[in-house]
Write a structure and sequence with these properties.
- The longest helix is centred in the last third of the chain and has 20 residues, at about 370-390.
- Strand 9 (about 410) and strand 10 (about 415) form a beta hairpin.
- The strands form four sheets. A four-stranded parallel sheet has the order 1-2-3-4. It has a two-stranded parallel ribbon with strand order 5-6.
- The radius of gyration is 27 Å and the shape is elongated.
- Helix content is about 50%, strand content about 10%.
- Helix 3 (about 40-50) crosses helix 10 (about 180-195).
- The protein has helices at about 5-10, 15-25, 40-50, 70-80, 90-95, 95-110, 125-130, 135-150, 155-165, 180-195, 210-220, 240-250, 265-270, 285-300, 310-320, 345-355, 365, 370-390, 395-405, 420-430, 435-445; strands at about 30, 85-90, 115-120, 170, 230-235, 260-265, 325, 340, 410, 415.
- It is built from 21 helices and ten strands.
- The chain has four domains: about 5-195, 3-Layer(aba) Sandwich (Rossmann fold); about 210-280, no CATH class; about 285-385, no CATH class; about 390-445, no CATH class.
- The chain is α/β, with parallel strands linked by helices.
Amino acid sequence: MATDDEEASTSSQPPHARRQRRLEKKQKVFLSHSGKDKAFVSHLDHRLRSVHHYPFFDVREDSLPVGDEFAHIIFRASKQCRLAIVVVSDDFFKSKWPMLELAAFVEAKNGVNPEMKILPLFYRLTVAEFKEPERQRDWFEKWEKLKESDERLDISSWEKALRVLGGHNGVVYCGIQQTEDEYIENIVQSVFRLVHPDALYDDSHVKGGTHLREGRRLYKERVGSHKVFLAIDNVWDDRKSLEEAAGYLVHELHPESKVLVTARCKETLRSLGIPEGCCFEMPDLREEDAMGLFLHYACPSPSPIDLANPEHLEVVEKCVSYAWHSKGGDTKLSPTYHLKFHPWALKVLGLYMRTLTPFPSKWIEKLNNPKILGSKVKDVNLVLRTSFDMLPEDDHRAMFLDVAIYAPNAYYDGYKAPTMEEVCEWLSMVYAQEIEVVKDKVTSLNMCDDVFIVYFPPF
Protein backbone atom coordinates (compact mmCIF):
# COMPACT_ATOMS: atom_id res chain seq x y z
CA MET A 1 0.00 0.00 0.00
CA ALA A 2 1.44 3.38 -0.95
CA THR A 3 2.31 5.74 1.90
CA ASP A 4 1.19 9.36 2.10
CA ASP A 5 4.69 10.44 1.18
CA GLU A 6 4.70 8.23 -1.92
CA GLU A 7 1.31 9.56 -2.99
CA ALA A 8 2.56 13.14 -2.65
CA SER A 9 5.70 12.40 -4.68
CA THR A 10 3.65 10.96 -7.56
CA SER A 11 0.86 13.52 -7.61
CA SER A 12 2.26 15.12 -10.76
CA GLN A 13 2.03 11.83 -12.64
CA PRO A 14 -1.01 10.82 -14.71
CA PRO A 15 -3.66 8.76 -12.87
CA HIS A 16 -2.74 5.52 -14.68
CA ALA A 17 0.92 5.84 -13.62
CA ARG A 18 -0.03 6.51 -10.00
CA ARG A 19 -2.40 3.51 -9.98
CA GLN A 20 0.29 1.28 -11.52
CA ARG A 21 2.75 2.20 -8.79
CA ARG A 22 0.21 1.36 -6.06
CA LEU A 23 -0.44 -2.00 -7.68
CA GLU A 24 3.24 -2.85 -7.83
CA LYS A 25 3.61 -2.16 -4.10
CA LYS A 26 1.13 -4.98 -3.45
CA GLN A 27 2.28 -7.58 -5.92
CA LYS A 28 4.53 -9.52 -3.58
CA VAL A 29 2.24 -12.55 -3.82
CA PHE A 30 0.45 -13.83 -6.94
CA LEU A 31 -2.49 -16.26 -6.65
CA SER A 32 -2.55 -18.48 -9.75
CA HIS A 33 -5.56 -20.81 -10.02
CA SER A 34 -8.23 -22.24 -12.28
CA GLY A 35 -11.75 -20.83 -12.41
CA LYS A 36 -13.19 -23.86 -10.58
CA ASP A 37 -11.01 -23.08 -7.52
CA LYS A 38 -12.17 -19.45 -7.32
CA ALA A 39 -14.12 -19.93 -4.07
CA PHE A 40 -11.14 -21.48 -2.26
CA VAL A 41 -8.75 -18.83 -3.56
CA SER A 42 -11.17 -16.08 -2.52
CA HIS A 43 -11.13 -17.50 1.01
CA LEU A 44 -7.30 -17.59 0.96
CA ASP A 45 -7.11 -14.03 -0.40
CA HIS A 46 -9.40 -12.76 2.37
CA ARG A 47 -7.27 -14.47 5.03
CA LEU A 48 -4.01 -13.11 3.64
CA ARG A 49 -5.40 -9.58 3.51
CA SER A 50 -6.48 -9.87 7.14
CA VAL A 51 -2.79 -10.24 8.07
CA HIS A 52 -1.53 -7.43 5.79
CA HIS A 53 -0.57 -9.48 2.72
CA TYR A 54 -2.26 -8.10 -0.41
CA PRO A 55 -1.90 -10.70 -3.18
CA PHE A 56 -2.60 -10.29 -6.87
CA PHE A 57 -6.06 -11.86 -7.28
CA ASP A 58 -7.81 -11.36 -10.60
CA VAL A 59 -11.25 -10.57 -9.15
CA ARG A 60 -9.91 -7.62 -7.16
CA GLU A 61 -10.02 -4.18 -8.79
CA ASP A 62 -6.76 -3.28 -7.08
CA SER A 63 -5.22 -6.18 -9.06
CA LEU A 64 -7.07 -5.77 -12.39
CA PRO A 65 -8.41 -2.19 -12.60
CA VAL A 66 -11.51 -1.68 -14.72
CA GLY A 67 -10.69 -0.42 -18.19
CA ASP A 68 -7.03 -1.54 -18.24
CA GLU A 69 -5.61 -4.22 -20.53
CA PHE A 70 -5.77 -7.31 -18.34
CA ALA A 71 -3.23 -9.46 -20.22
CA HIS A 72 -0.46 -6.88 -19.83
CA ILE A 73 -1.18 -6.44 -16.11
CA ILE A 74 -1.29 -10.18 -15.42
CA PHE A 75 2.01 -10.87 -17.17
CA ARG A 76 3.69 -7.92 -15.50
CA ALA A 77 2.49 -9.02 -12.06
CA SER A 78 3.42 -12.66 -12.66
CA LYS A 79 7.00 -11.70 -13.53
CA GLN A 80 7.47 -9.16 -10.71
CA CYS A 81 6.00 -11.04 -7.73
CA ARG A 82 8.19 -12.41 -4.96
CA LEU A 83 6.02 -15.45 -4.29
CA ALA A 84 3.97 -17.31 -6.90
CA ILE A 85 1.28 -19.47 -5.29
CA VAL A 86 0.03 -22.19 -7.64
CA VAL A 87 -3.25 -23.93 -6.69
CA VAL A 88 -2.62 -27.39 -8.12
CA SER A 89 -5.59 -29.20 -9.67
CA ASP A 90 -6.55 -31.02 -12.86
CA ASP A 91 -8.47 -27.94 -13.99
CA PHE A 92 -5.36 -25.78 -13.54
CA PHE A 93 -3.31 -27.86 -15.97
CA LYS A 94 -6.14 -28.06 -18.49
CA SER A 95 -6.72 -24.29 -18.59
CA LYS A 96 -4.97 -21.80 -20.84
CA TRP A 97 -4.44 -18.81 -18.56
CA PRO A 98 -3.16 -20.68 -15.49
CA MET A 99 -0.57 -22.42 -17.68
CA LEU A 100 0.45 -19.10 -19.23
CA GLU A 101 0.97 -17.74 -15.70
CA LEU A 102 2.99 -20.79 -14.61
CA ALA A 103 5.23 -20.49 -17.69
CA ALA A 104 5.69 -16.77 -16.92
CA PHE A 105 6.75 -17.57 -13.33
CA VAL A 106 9.40 -20.04 -14.50
CA GLU A 107 10.66 -17.69 -17.24
CA ALA A 108 10.99 -14.81 -14.75
CA LYS A 109 12.69 -17.00 -12.12
CA ASN A 110 15.26 -18.08 -14.74
CA GLY A 111 15.75 -14.51 -15.92
CA VAL A 112 14.69 -11.13 -14.57
CA ASN A 113 13.46 -12.31 -11.15
CA PRO A 114 15.75 -15.10 -9.84
CA GLU A 115 14.71 -14.47 -6.20
CA MET A 116 11.09 -15.42 -6.92
CA LYS A 117 9.77 -18.38 -4.94
CA ILE A 118 7.12 -20.79 -6.23
CA LEU A 119 4.77 -22.42 -3.71
CA PRO A 120 2.50 -25.23 -5.00
CA LEU A 121 -0.72 -25.85 -3.06
CA PHE A 122 -1.68 -29.50 -3.47
CA TYR A 123 -5.34 -28.78 -2.83
CA ARG A 124 -7.31 -30.97 -5.23
CA LEU A 125 -4.41 -33.19 -6.27
CA THR A 126 -2.00 -35.07 -4.02
CA VAL A 127 1.71 -35.04 -4.79
CA ALA A 128 1.47 -38.64 -6.03
CA GLU A 129 -1.48 -37.82 -8.30
CA PHE A 130 0.37 -34.80 -9.70
CA LYS A 131 3.27 -37.06 -10.73
CA GLU A 132 1.16 -39.77 -12.38
CA PRO A 133 2.44 -40.21 -15.99
CA GLU A 134 -1.02 -41.04 -17.36
CA ARG A 135 -2.52 -37.91 -15.82
CA GLN A 136 0.23 -35.75 -17.24
CA ARG A 137 -0.30 -37.28 -20.69
CA ASP A 138 -3.93 -36.11 -20.47
CA TRP A 139 -2.69 -32.59 -19.80
CA PHE A 140 -0.31 -32.73 -22.77
CA GLU A 141 -3.17 -33.81 -25.05
CA LYS A 142 -5.30 -30.94 -23.77
CA TRP A 143 -2.48 -28.48 -24.47
CA GLU A 144 -2.22 -29.69 -28.06
CA LYS A 145 -5.94 -29.03 -28.53
CA LEU A 146 -5.54 -25.54 -27.07
CA LYS A 147 -2.68 -24.87 -29.48
CA GLU A 148 -4.91 -25.80 -32.43
CA SER A 149 -7.09 -22.80 -31.60
CA ASP A 150 -4.17 -20.50 -30.72
CA GLU A 151 -0.92 -21.16 -32.59
CA ARG A 152 0.93 -18.58 -30.49
CA LEU A 153 1.00 -20.96 -27.50
CA ASP A 154 4.46 -22.34 -26.70
CA ILE A 155 3.69 -25.83 -25.40
CA SER A 156 7.37 -26.62 -24.79
CA SER A 157 7.53 -23.83 -22.19
CA TRP A 158 4.51 -25.36 -20.47
CA GLU A 159 6.22 -28.76 -20.29
CA LYS A 160 9.31 -27.12 -18.81
CA ALA A 161 7.19 -25.22 -16.29
CA LEU A 162 5.50 -28.45 -15.23
CA ARG A 163 8.88 -30.09 -14.57
CA VAL A 164 10.05 -27.07 -12.56
CA LEU A 165 6.87 -27.04 -10.49
CA GLY A 166 7.36 -30.72 -9.67
CA GLY A 167 10.71 -29.88 -8.06
CA HIS A 168 9.18 -27.55 -5.45
CA ASN A 169 7.91 -28.56 -2.02
CA GLY A 170 4.35 -27.37 -1.43
CA VAL A 171 1.59 -27.27 1.15
CA VAL A 172 -0.49 -30.44 1.04
CA TYR A 173 -4.20 -30.60 1.89
CA CYS A 174 -4.86 -33.56 4.19
CA GLY A 175 -8.50 -34.09 3.24
CA ILE A 176 -10.77 -35.50 5.94
CA GLN A 177 -8.05 -35.07 8.57
CA GLN A 178 -7.96 -31.30 8.05
CA THR A 179 -10.58 -28.61 7.55
CA GLU A 180 -10.18 -26.07 4.77
CA ASP A 181 -9.70 -23.33 7.38
CA GLU A 182 -6.84 -25.29 8.96
CA TYR A 183 -5.29 -25.82 5.53
CA ILE A 184 -5.46 -22.10 4.79
CA GLU A 185 -3.83 -21.29 8.14
CA ASN A 186 -0.94 -23.59 7.18
CA ILE A 187 -0.63 -21.73 3.88
CA VAL A 188 -0.62 -18.35 5.61
CA GLN A 189 2.16 -19.55 7.94
CA SER A 190 4.21 -20.62 4.90
CA VAL A 191 3.64 -17.26 3.19
CA PHE A 192 4.84 -15.43 6.30
CA ARG A 193 8.05 -17.43 6.29
CA LEU A 194 8.70 -16.64 2.63
CA VAL A 195 7.58 -13.01 2.19
CA HIS A 196 7.39 -9.98 4.48
CA PRO A 197 3.87 -8.60 4.95
CA ASP A 198 2.97 -5.03 4.11
CA ALA A 199 3.54 -3.43 7.50
CA LEU A 200 0.56 -2.04 9.39
CA TYR A 201 1.34 -0.74 12.86
CA ASP A 202 -1.13 -1.26 15.67
CA ASP A 203 -0.37 1.25 18.40
CA SER A 204 -3.90 1.56 19.76
CA HIS A 205 -2.71 0.06 23.07
CA VAL A 206 0.15 2.58 23.45
CA LYS A 207 -0.26 5.74 25.51
CA GLY A 208 1.11 8.67 23.55
CA GLY A 209 0.52 6.84 20.27
CA THR A 210 0.55 10.14 18.37
CA HIS A 211 4.21 10.68 19.29
CA LEU A 212 4.98 7.09 18.30
CA ARG A 213 3.42 7.61 14.88
CA GLU A 214 5.37 10.85 14.43
CA GLY A 215 8.58 8.98 15.31
CA ARG A 216 7.83 6.33 12.71
CA ARG A 217 7.13 8.99 10.10
CA LEU A 218 10.51 10.63 10.79
CA TYR A 219 12.18 7.22 10.71
CA LYS A 220 10.79 6.51 7.23
CA GLU A 221 11.80 9.97 5.99
CA ARG A 222 15.36 9.99 7.29
CA VAL A 223 16.53 6.39 7.61
CA GLY A 224 17.71 6.26 4.01
CA SER A 225 19.83 9.40 4.19
CA HIS A 226 21.26 9.19 7.73
CA LYS A 227 23.55 6.63 9.33
CA VAL A 228 21.64 4.82 12.09
CA PHE A 229 22.11 1.94 14.50
CA LEU A 230 18.84 -0.02 14.46
CA ALA A 231 18.32 -2.60 17.23
CA ILE A 232 15.25 -4.87 17.05
CA ASP A 233 15.25 -7.00 20.18
CA ASN A 234 13.54 -10.29 21.01
CA VAL A 235 11.66 -10.99 17.76
CA TRP A 236 9.30 -13.93 18.19
CA ASP A 237 8.07 -16.20 15.41
CA ASP A 238 4.44 -15.11 15.77
CA ARG A 239 2.83 -12.93 13.12
CA LYS A 240 2.52 -9.75 15.17
CA SER A 241 6.18 -9.73 16.16
CA LEU A 242 7.35 -10.54 12.61
CA GLU A 243 5.14 -7.80 11.15
CA GLU A 244 6.56 -5.24 13.59
CA ALA A 245 10.16 -6.19 12.80
CA ALA A 246 9.54 -6.33 9.05
CA GLY A 247 8.00 -2.85 9.21
CA TYR A 248 11.40 -1.43 10.18
CA LEU A 249 13.52 -3.63 7.92
CA VAL A 250 11.46 -3.00 4.78
CA HIS A 251 12.85 0.53 4.38
CA GLU A 252 16.09 1.05 2.47
CA LEU A 253 18.81 2.01 4.96
CA HIS A 254 21.88 4.19 4.57
CA PRO A 255 24.78 2.01 3.33
CA GLU A 256 26.78 2.72 6.52
CA SER A 257 23.90 1.94 8.90
CA LYS A 258 24.14 -1.02 11.28
CA VAL A 259 21.27 -3.34 12.19
CA LEU A 260 21.09 -5.77 15.12
CA VAL A 261 18.18 -8.22 15.37
CA THR A 262 17.85 -10.74 18.21
CA ALA A 263 15.56 -13.77 18.25
CA ARG A 264 15.29 -17.12 19.99
CA CYS A 265 15.83 -19.09 16.81
CA LYS A 266 17.80 -18.76 13.58
CA GLU A 267 14.68 -19.64 11.54
CA THR A 268 13.01 -16.45 12.80
CA LEU A 269 15.91 -14.36 11.48
CA ARG A 270 15.82 -16.19 8.14
CA SER A 271 12.11 -15.46 7.78
CA LEU A 272 12.98 -11.76 7.98
CA GLY A 273 15.32 -12.15 5.02
CA ILE A 274 18.53 -11.99 7.06
CA PRO A 275 21.30 -14.04 5.35
CA GLU A 276 22.44 -17.08 7.31
CA GLY A 277 26.02 -15.86 7.18
CA CYS A 278 24.96 -12.83 9.25
CA CYS A 279 23.33 -14.95 12.00
CA PHE A 280 25.39 -15.73 15.11
CA GLU A 281 24.49 -17.89 18.09
CA MET A 282 24.67 -16.21 21.49
CA PRO A 283 27.48 -17.70 23.60
CA ASP A 284 26.52 -19.70 26.66
CA LEU A 285 26.35 -17.89 29.99
CA ARG A 286 29.61 -18.49 31.90
CA GLU A 287 29.46 -19.61 35.51
CA GLU A 288 30.85 -16.35 36.89
CA ASP A 289 28.26 -14.39 34.84
CA ALA A 290 25.51 -16.74 36.04
CA MET A 291 26.50 -16.13 39.65
CA GLY A 292 26.54 -12.38 39.04
CA LEU A 293 23.07 -12.49 37.50
CA PHE A 294 21.71 -14.60 40.34
CA LEU A 295 23.18 -12.26 42.98
CA HIS A 296 21.78 -9.21 41.17
CA TYR A 297 18.27 -10.47 41.93
CA ALA A 298 18.99 -12.32 45.19
CA CYS A 299 20.88 -9.73 47.20
CA PRO A 300 20.20 -6.15 48.26
CA SER A 301 22.80 -3.52 47.45
CA PRO A 302 25.46 -3.47 48.80
CA SER A 303 25.69 -7.26 48.60
CA PRO A 304 26.61 -9.20 51.76
CA ILE A 305 28.10 -11.91 49.55
CA ASP A 306 31.87 -12.10 49.08
CA LEU A 307 32.77 -14.66 46.42
CA ALA A 308 36.34 -14.63 47.66
CA ASN A 309 34.99 -16.31 50.79
CA PRO A 310 34.97 -20.11 50.08
CA GLU A 311 31.81 -20.64 52.13
CA HIS A 312 29.92 -17.91 50.27
CA LEU A 313 31.22 -19.21 46.93
CA GLU A 314 30.03 -22.74 47.70
CA VAL A 315 26.53 -21.46 48.57
CA VAL A 316 26.20 -19.42 45.35
CA GLU A 317 27.56 -22.26 43.19
CA LYS A 318 24.98 -24.58 44.71
CA CYS A 319 22.19 -22.09 44.00
CA VAL A 320 23.07 -21.46 40.36
CA SER A 321 23.43 -25.20 39.74
CA TYR A 322 19.62 -25.36 39.98
CA ALA A 323 19.47 -23.19 36.85
CA TRP A 324 21.43 -25.63 34.68
CA HIS A 325 19.93 -27.34 31.70
CA SER A 326 21.56 -29.66 29.19
CA LYS A 327 22.43 -28.65 25.65
CA GLY A 328 22.94 -31.29 23.00
CA GLY A 329 22.35 -34.26 25.28
CA ASP A 330 21.33 -35.20 28.80
CA THR A 331 23.96 -37.72 29.82
CA LYS A 332 27.73 -37.65 29.86
CA LEU A 333 27.68 -40.50 27.34
CA SER A 334 26.62 -37.97 24.71
CA PRO A 335 29.55 -36.63 22.62
CA THR A 336 27.97 -33.15 22.61
CA TYR A 337 27.03 -33.11 26.30
CA HIS A 338 27.48 -29.93 28.29
CA LEU A 339 25.42 -27.74 30.62
CA LYS A 340 24.42 -24.12 30.32
CA PHE A 341 22.64 -21.70 32.60
CA HIS A 342 19.09 -20.54 31.93
CA PRO A 343 18.89 -16.73 32.56
CA TRP A 344 15.19 -16.75 33.39
CA ALA A 345 15.62 -19.58 35.89
CA LEU A 346 18.43 -17.56 37.54
CA LYS A 347 16.13 -14.54 37.81
CA VAL A 348 13.20 -16.52 39.26
CA LEU A 349 15.46 -18.31 41.74
CA GLY A 350 17.24 -15.08 42.73
CA LEU A 351 14.01 -13.16 43.41
CA TYR A 352 12.67 -16.17 45.29
CA MET A 353 15.65 -16.25 47.62
CA ARG A 354 15.54 -12.49 48.16
CA THR A 355 11.89 -12.51 49.26
CA LEU A 356 12.27 -15.70 51.31
CA THR A 357 15.32 -14.90 53.41
CA PRO A 358 18.00 -12.17 53.41
CA PHE A 359 20.55 -14.59 54.90
CA PRO A 360 22.63 -16.50 52.31
CA SER A 361 23.50 -19.07 54.96
CA LYS A 362 19.83 -20.14 54.86
CA TRP A 363 19.68 -20.53 51.07
CA ILE A 364 20.99 -24.11 51.02
CA GLU A 365 18.39 -25.13 53.59
CA LYS A 366 15.63 -23.66 51.41
CA LEU A 367 16.99 -25.31 48.27
CA ASN A 368 16.86 -28.69 49.98
CA ASN A 369 13.15 -28.24 50.75
CA PRO A 370 11.43 -29.61 47.61
CA LYS A 371 8.00 -28.35 48.71
CA ILE A 372 9.18 -24.72 48.80
CA LEU A 373 11.34 -24.94 45.69
CA GLY A 374 8.65 -26.75 43.72
CA SER A 375 6.28 -23.80 44.05
CA LYS A 376 8.64 -21.66 41.96
CA VAL A 377 8.87 -24.15 39.11
CA LYS A 378 5.43 -22.90 38.08
CA ASP A 379 6.88 -19.43 37.46
CA VAL A 380 9.41 -20.83 34.99
CA ASN A 381 6.83 -23.02 33.29
CA LEU A 382 4.49 -20.06 32.79
CA VAL A 383 7.18 -18.35 30.74
CA LEU A 384 8.13 -21.47 28.79
CA ARG A 385 4.47 -22.15 28.02
CA THR A 386 4.43 -18.99 25.89
CA SER A 387 6.13 -20.87 23.04
CA PHE A 388 3.39 -23.49 23.12
CA ASP A 389 0.53 -20.99 23.24
CA MET A 390 1.84 -19.19 20.15
CA LEU A 391 1.51 -22.31 17.99
CA PRO A 392 -1.54 -22.73 15.72
CA GLU A 393 -4.37 -24.64 17.39
CA ASP A 394 -4.01 -27.77 15.26
CA ASP A 395 -1.64 -30.71 15.18
CA HIS A 396 1.33 -28.31 15.55
CA ARG A 397 0.65 -28.34 19.30
CA ALA A 398 0.38 -32.10 19.45
CA MET A 399 3.64 -32.46 17.52
CA PHE A 400 5.26 -29.94 19.86
CA LEU A 401 4.44 -32.19 22.81
CA ASP A 402 5.72 -35.22 20.89
CA VAL A 403 9.11 -33.73 20.04
CA ALA A 404 9.70 -31.30 22.92
CA ILE A 405 11.52 -34.07 24.79
CA TYR A 406 13.73 -34.91 21.82
CA ALA A 407 17.46 -34.17 22.04
CA PRO A 408 19.59 -34.87 18.94
CA ASN A 409 22.66 -37.03 19.56
CA ALA A 410 21.60 -37.81 23.14
CA TYR A 411 22.00 -41.23 24.76
CA TYR A 412 19.42 -42.89 27.02
CA ASP A 413 20.31 -46.05 28.99
CA GLY A 414 22.99 -46.76 26.41
CA TYR A 415 20.69 -46.18 23.41
CA LYS A 416 21.39 -43.36 20.97
CA ALA A 417 18.36 -41.16 20.25
CA PRO A 418 16.78 -41.55 16.79
CA THR A 419 17.70 -39.11 14.07
CA MET A 420 15.33 -36.27 13.20
CA GLU A 421 14.58 -38.10 9.94
CA GLU A 422 13.42 -41.15 11.95
CA VAL A 423 11.36 -38.95 14.26
CA CYS A 424 9.60 -37.38 11.25
CA GLU A 425 8.90 -40.82 9.79
CA TRP A 426 7.30 -41.83 13.09
CA LEU A 427 5.21 -38.63 13.23
CA SER A 428 4.17 -39.22 9.62
CA MET A 429 2.69 -42.58 10.61
CA VAL A 430 1.09 -41.25 13.81
CA TYR A 431 -0.65 -38.31 12.09
CA ALA A 432 -1.19 -40.04 8.72
CA GLN A 433 0.46 -37.16 6.85
CA GLU A 434 3.08 -37.12 4.13
CA ILE A 435 6.60 -36.90 5.53
CA GLU A 436 7.36 -33.60 3.74
CA VAL A 437 4.34 -32.02 5.42
CA VAL A 438 5.51 -33.30 8.80
CA LYS A 439 9.04 -31.96 8.21
CA ASP A 440 7.67 -28.49 7.43
CA LYS A 441 5.60 -28.51 10.62
CA VAL A 442 8.47 -29.76 12.81
CA THR A 443 10.75 -27.11 11.30
CA SER A 444 8.19 -24.41 12.09
CA LEU A 445 8.25 -25.44 15.76
CA ASN A 446 11.82 -24.09 16.02
CA MET A 447 12.80 -26.87 18.37
CA CYS A 448 16.43 -25.79 18.52
CA ASP A 449 17.05 -24.87 22.15
CA ASP A 450 17.01 -28.40 23.64
CA VAL A 451 15.57 -26.86 26.78
CA PHE A 452 14.20 -29.55 29.09
CA ILE A 453 15.25 -33.09 28.27
CA VAL A 454 13.47 -36.16 29.67
CA TYR A 455 13.40 -39.80 28.65
CA PHE A 456 12.75 -40.43 24.96
CA PRO A 457 12.03 -44.12 24.25
CA PRO A 458 14.27 -45.59 21.51
CA PHE A 459 12.73 -47.07 18.37
